[in-house]
Amino acid sequence: MNVDDLAHAAEAVAPKLLGAVLTHKTPEGTVSIAITETEAYSGAADPASHAYRGRTARNAVMFGPAGHLYVYRSHGLHWCANVVTGTDGIASAVLIRAGRVIEGEDLARERRGPKVEDARLARGPGNFCQALGITAAHDGANLLTGTSVTLSEGEPVPDALIRIGPRVGVSKAHDWQHRFYVAGDPTVSAYRMSPRAKPGPS
């Protein structure tokens, strides 16, 4: 995978990331996860995006260049990982919502807990990061040229298995069809609409 693959709008890149593999190499071992669920977030035109009101210290990585990792804390509890996409200077990123552990399952389970089912090891963005060992320290990491956290091509997902729907749990622009996932995959998270959900601009 190279920067040209990612240098497009988030909603165009998000379905193409299904099947791609995020890998994190640490002294404890290596964990690789094949992506099964994503969500696209753009900038000033997307009320649900962290970049809706412009650049800040928190969201600066979202503005590019493409191929870097944007990591943020959700509800003060969980780290969430995003692949930055698009044109340098314009905010665009794809949230990784879920995946299937394909390497380092023992280490992923050690991080997630001994009783966690295989399908739930990386289901949900917070669990994905926990299984992979991703934290704020990895914000801004270059996924294409780095050596610790990397993004690579995996087993392609046939178009017939890709489903599209509204994003999970967002209160703004909840009706935008910017969530992409692999049909029938047990690692995909359940859809939940925010009780404060409001439709986005058309």
Automatic annotation (TrEMBL):
Q: Tell me the Pfam families matching this sequence.
A: Pur_DNA_glyco
Q: Which GO terms describe its molecular function?
A: hydrolase activity, acting on glycosyl bonds
What InterPro entries has UniProt attached to this entry? Formyl_transferase-like_C_sf, MPG, MPG_sf
Keywords attached to this entry? DNA damage, DNA repair, Glycosidase, Hydrolase
What's the superkingdom here?
Bacteria
EC numbers for this chain: 3.2.2.-
Q: Which NCBIfam families match?
A: 3mg, PRK00802.1-3
Q: Which family does it belong to?
A: Belongs to the DNA glycosylase MPG family.
Q: What is this protein called?
A: Putative 3-methyladenine DNA glycosylase
Q: Which organism is it from?
A: Streptomyces nigra
